[in-house]
Write a structure and sequence with these properties.
The protein is α/β, with parallel strands linked by helices. It folds into two domains: 193 residues, 3-Layer(aba) Sandwich (Rossmann fold), CATH 3.40.50.880; 100 residues, Homeodomain-like (Arc Repressor Mutant, subunit A). A six-stranded mixed sheet has the order 4-1-7-8-12-11, sandwiched between helices. Strands 2-3 form a two-stranded antiparallel ribbon. A two-stranded antiparallel ribbon has the order 5-6. Helix 10 crosses helix 12. The chain is elongated, with a radius of gyration of 23 Å. The protein starts with a strand and ends with a helix.
Length: 312
């Protein structure tokens, strides 16, 4: 039987811990056979988990025999990882064990070095922090999960369900995974990635040199906005404007405008009944097809699906 070791570290997030226990623990094969043997493992006999304390039945030695190790998120992703935990995870990976993290569990996995040179994800609130702390990881903030074969990572909260169902499908096929999805009351595949859940704050009033320009752009998204027009409004050369945008936003002025237009479109899709064509015009896209293509590229889903998911 396929053994899944769920690692419970101090401050483990209960939702992340329960997700693999429930998904894998309820998988049934032909003859009502269990598909997985799920074991919650800890370094200590008692593990703080927010509102309660866990008493794991298994220790780190279980990782040495597991087929899959799942690392749930922890409340403080920047807390030092015990050396014994790092050694146990590395040892499991060295013998070919599959390793998967959920949410901020990616920080634990990153501390082992197993994500270096790989693409990975975590909760969108922490993707910048993960990228800064571990620059050798290609952090993707837009996806629900990343499958590198032996090493997998997922975004936050419910994305752990997506990851676990994906693993069930890898192990036992779509039919078994579909049954597991029904039990979890989840679609086997969700449209879009976590980009559709990211909230974007307006430019802050901290006196930054581009803050007035950004607010002016947001007030004129429906109009043609060329680099020359932006530079003229900001009273600087196009070269200087581009350099300051790169320094302060990490992107170009025109790319920032496209992102601002899509953010405004998200607000309109959530709060109005305007057609997609109307919204495309209102936020400054030349055509509805161009708007749909750009929206899907940035948000990871179509305007129609976004509206169905987030309409207030």
């Amino acid at each position: 039987m396929h053994t899944v070791a769920v690692l419970a570290l101090s401050g483990v997030v209960p939702f992340d811990l329960s997700t693999p226990c429930e998904v894998f623990g309820r998988v049934r094969l032909a003859g009502d056979r269990a598909g997985y043997d799920v074991r919650v493992c800890g370094l200590e006999k008692e593990v703080p988990a927010g509102a309660f304390t866990l008493r794991p039945r298994w220790g780190l030695r279980t990782l040495a025999k597991a087929d899959t190790v799942v690392i749930p998120g922890v409340a403080d992703p920047l807390a030092p990882i015990p050396k014994a935990v790092v050694r146990a995870i590395r040892s499991a990976a060295a013998r070919g064990c599959r390793i998967a993290s959920i949410c901020s569990g990616a920080f634990v996995l990153a501390a082992t070095g197993l994500l270096d040179g790989r693409r990975a994800t975590t909760h969108w609130l922490a993707t910048d922090q993960l990228a800064q702390r571990y620059p050798h990881i290609a952090v993707d903030p837009n996806v629900l999960y990343v499958d590198n074969g032996q090493i997998l990572t997922s975004a936050g909260a419910a994305a752990g369900l997506d990851l676990c169902l994906h693993l069930v499908r890898r192990d036992y096929g779509a039919a078994v995974a579909a049954d597991a999805a029904r039990i979890a009351v989840m679609p086997l595949e969700r449209s879009g990635g976590q980009a559709q859940f990211i909230t974007h704050q307006p430019p802050g009033g901290d006196g930054g040199s581009l803050e007035p320009s950004m607010r002016w752009i947001q007030a004129h998204l429906h109009q043609p906005l060329t680099l020359e027009r932006l530079a003229g409004h900001a009273a600087m050369s196009t070269r200087t404007l581009s350099r300051r945008f790169a320094e302060q936003t990490g992107t170009t002025p025109l790319q920032w405008i496209l992102q601002a237009r899509v953010r405004r479109a998200q607000q309109l899709l959530e709060t109005t009944g305007h057609s997609v064509e109307q919204i495309a015009t209102e936020v400054g896209f030349g055509s509805a097809p161009a708007f749909r293509e750009r929206f899907n590229r940035i948000v990871g889903t179509s305007p129609q699906r976004y509206r169905r998911a987030f309409r207030r």
